[in-house]
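Example 3.2
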Amino acid sequence: MQLCVLLQRNRKIKRNEMTHYPIKILMAFGCTFEPEGDEFFEWLMRNGYPELGALSQTIQGDTKAKDWLMEHGFPQLAAIDSVIDKEEKAEEWLIKNHYEVNLAFARAINRDDDASLWLEKNELQVFIVLADKIRKYLDDKYLNFHKIHF
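Structure, written as tokens:
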């Protein structure tokens, strides 16, 4: 089923979706995917946003961080990583539990044009910017992994 159709069914945005974070905090989260991202990660952890620090680490491949998200009441953030990894059950869970923004964000990271259009239409461009940063990080990580090291 088309993402836009699924998202239009129930347009109420939950308070505990990614949208409740101030733009400044979301941009700090995005900076954790840059080469000097450790400083931003530490800032998130020290300033009351450990769940975003854990989400960043989860997307970067840390399974313990994903476990932390699940154990500390943030399955909606752990599901973002699972959608990035194309796990259909995570998509279904986000839809069932009305985390439309989180679903669109994760799918935008995977270059889903419908998801990006939905985010833009709903004036959530910050998530398009974040999706592009994360996609670049993941692409570079994949390319660096496959380089021959001497």
